[in-house]
Amino acid sequence: MSDDADRPRKTLTLTRPSRSAQDENPRRKRSGARAKNAEQLERGKEKTGRMPQAGGLRNDSASPAAALADRNRDEPREPDKPDELSGGEDTAAFIGEPVVEKRRRPLSAKQAEVFNVFAPCPQGLEEALAAEMQALGFEDAQPGRAGCGFTADWSGIQRANLYSRLATRILAQVAQEEIGHEDDILDLAYSVPWERWFGAEQTLRVDTSAIKSPVRSLQYCNLRAKDGICDRLRDREGARPDIDTVRPDARVHLFIQGTLATLYLDTSGESLFKRGWRLDKGEAPLRENLAAGLLALAGWDPAYPLMDPFCGSGTILIEAAGIALGVPAGIWRPFGFERMRGFDNRHWRDLKDDARTRIRTQLDTPLVGCDLDPQAVEYARANAERAWLTPDTIRFEVGDARTMEPPCEPGWIVTNPPYGDRMDQIDDGLWRDWASNLKKHYAGWRLHVISSDMTLPQQLRLKPQRRTPIHNGALDCRLFGFELVASSYRDA
Questions:
Q1: In whole angstroms, what is the distance from residue 68 CA to residue 325 CA?
Q2: pLDDT digits (tens, 9 = 90+) for 411-451
Q3: 176 pairs with which residues across the strands?
């Protein structure tokens, strides 16, 4: 898209250079078609290598987890939906060290480039996500704002997509620069060799977010980034990619922190919480990565039983089954990097085959879920079946948390009970009756409850050992942790 000469140019509240300075070093105009030779001449005067070049893929990456069976050829997919991350602070990025400039060199599997990577996640899971990435072999992983930063080669990026249960996306940093004007965003986007990963024949989506930035219009900044990408591909390949905001072939994220602009190549495609098995949803379901995060924050040990007395569509328990069996979170779904140029299908197949060799076929401890709503229980069973779990892996049943007795020896209770708008349909005595049942029958269990109601412990008449801040979408919640000890209760 060419610039309009009458378009307002001030979108940053920054000091503009004097008129004389502008006359001495006039900004290169972006209107009309570029003269290709003049463009290359001008670009040759600038520094090259603003980003690490896309690397080849190594064959020596060790996979730390396992999978169920080789059935992902018929991967179920969720219905197409717009991505919820665009333009919001949930995509706020960790800004690490500047990208190291490297000389261009032939790319091969033995000479993989290293990227600065950012993995966003629900707020409250940053520490848990960093620990997960370290366990996957990314030793430099550090928590940031609403996510985690680390370095990885292209093979490592693929492994992070395959195995991470807590991340929302895996974003590879491709450019970073201070900006003083919106045209600097266009220049930055134009400088990146996007043709390495996608071309004019593919569809594109660009998302922009910012924190503590003087930009006045995120939409206009998004347009500048999109123009830079499209202009680059038009000049290199003779055509511009089409824009698709629903299911694009390629996604790019622009993040602005203050006056520092960073461009990321989205390697995930659909958000990583979309595992591919949850098509049936109950009322106010948890996203899959948040459910896995609750289990991590609760400290659940797969060697012990797990119960969810408000199981809904079964997300917490299905995630728990995947953890206990060692099923990589992304084993049943496709990823954005599979549609990129230079995709090494053989290496990707080797990574997944390696994961499948460490399969566990049977659980040692029970997973039990109940819900008052028979339809929710049916949804849970259908979701578990789509996750390739056998019917005896998780015991789902219709039941009332206020009267249900323990199904097995003590373990963990991790649950997402009704709160917020859902409480309008709930009996006022729910918490009193549930607490009474817990005190009478669940001594020795560890109880972890997520809720946006900060008075929940008082209503349960229980004293929490921990209150962990966490966000469920836009809701500011707490994960309350309780120890149910028989000797501390009187007759309820």
A1: 7
A2: 999 999 987 655 555 667 899 999 999 999 999 999 999 99
A3: 262
